[in-house]
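Suppose you are handed only two things: the residues of a chain and a line of SMILES describing flavin mononucleotide. What would the bound structure be? This form records exactly that question and the answer produced for it, so the two can be stored side by side and reused later without any lookup.

QUESTION INPUTS
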Amino acid sequence: MTKALVAYSTRSGQTQSIADLVAEGIRFTGADATVVNATSLTKEQDLEGYDAYIFGSATYHGEMMQSMKTLLFLAAKLNLQGKAGGSFGAFGWSGEAPDRIYETMENIFQMDMVGTPLRLKSSSLQGGLQMAQDYGRAIGKKITGK
Ligand SMILES: Cc1cc2nc3c(=O)[nH]c(=O)nc-3n(C[C@H](O)[C@H](O)[C@H](O)COP(=O)(O)O)c2cc1C
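ANSWER OUTPUT
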């Protein structure tokens, strides 16, 4: 089965809510989606075997959270070239984290990135629910062709 990994870093839960909605969108296309906290991905094997990788972090002090930085260093050990990718994150006013994650996936990992990073103030505000599901659907389409 076509499989996607959705990994998130959060402090107060918003980015986890976005991760769950992105995963729902992926599942609408018939692909399988696993949602995990970045802190529980510790070995290269934890990242192996997926067709798409969608990484998200909240922005704190202008940066992604440490657990997402650690995950990106781990992911750099694998060959993710050409795999489908996306990034997301909750933010307050500047929202650098999803952009930095996206750039790393695109420039270092050379992944096949979907559209743009998904930046949401909240999964429940300003159409966030729909946007997060649609983001997942776009990733799902890439890997299932549906
Ligand atoms: C101490 C602190 C620092 C923050 N720094 C930023 C920041 O630099 N840029 C930004 O856009 N949001 C910033 N935020 C807002 C968070 O990104 C926002 O509350 C987000 O929804 C948190 O997501 P989470 O629930 O996934 O942790 C900050 C929040 C706190 C409490």
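WHAT STANDS OUT: The pocket of flavin mononucleotide is lined by residues 10-15, 58-62, 90-95 (CB under 6 Å). Helices lie at 14-28, 66-75, 96-107, 128-144.
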